Amino acid sequence: MTQPGSPDAGQPGTEPAHSGDAAGADRKSLWIGLVLVGGFTLAEAVAGFWAGSLILLAHAGHMLADAVSIGIGLVAVRFSGRSATAERTYGFHRTEVLAALVNALVLWAIALAVLFEGYRRLSDTPEVQGGVLLAVGSIGLVVNISAVWLMHGSAQRNTTIQGVFQHMITDLLGSVAVVVAGVLVWAFGWHVSDPVLSLLIGALILSSTWRLLSKVVQVLLEGTPEHIDVYALCYQIEQLEGVTLIHDVHCWTLAPGYDAMTAHILVEPGYGSGDGRDSMLDRIREIAYQEFNIRHITIQVETTAGRCLEAHHVDHLLATARM
Fold this sequence. Notes:
By secondary structure, this protein is mostly helical. The chain contains nine helices and three strands, in the order H-H-H-H-H-H-H-E-E-H-E-H.
């Protein structure tokens, strides 16, 4: 909390909630996942060319994207823990967001390529070795289940790993599709099931990454986090003794689990300095931290609105009046 015009130097607990132990566990799960996924990707690609199967090649391409995303995740986890510097005052925390964006875009490129080739093969379906398809698909299913189980915990606390986890979930569904295609080709000779289920995998990739991409874009556009009701936040602060009006309010996500807020507070005469102001700012901090989980707060205290040059942004008053 600050005097007018002064930046917040930082409050206790403003760092992202990633402990050293959690970060170490995240790195370990990523490394194990990289070995599992990378090794099977190579085997599946070879099997796909040998069996003449598009669905194996599509799944191998998806798993290659997973391997790349895990590598990016390892870089992101390493850099996101670096301290802030004069050149980067928020550190490298947004590395996680950029890595998630790369993950989503790579998946979309692969999905479009699979959809195009699958559509082409519908009219000219080659024969596929069903036994190879079924065997490799079954092994891939086991590998994907292992990877999903391995990364489930880390995905709950880290958006970068959440992006990798989304890849794994789609891979798991893709492995099921590969097994189904293998059964249909091996047992019934339905070779057309290979391109048909490849189209399904392409559609799954597109749908599974849409939510992740939407969340990344929301962060990059500095939109208000979903869990923060700005109207409720403004209303609670304006009910405090000494507060006349809150305006120029901005809430956004700096990095996963690290939300920020800036605002101007117009106070009554006598609250511009001294113990009354400090008590008021302490209460604002409690509201922002405890009730809205905002970790970085900057407040500019004003005794008159005439000196404020920024746009006032007081539409929350209209919303309150309609309640």
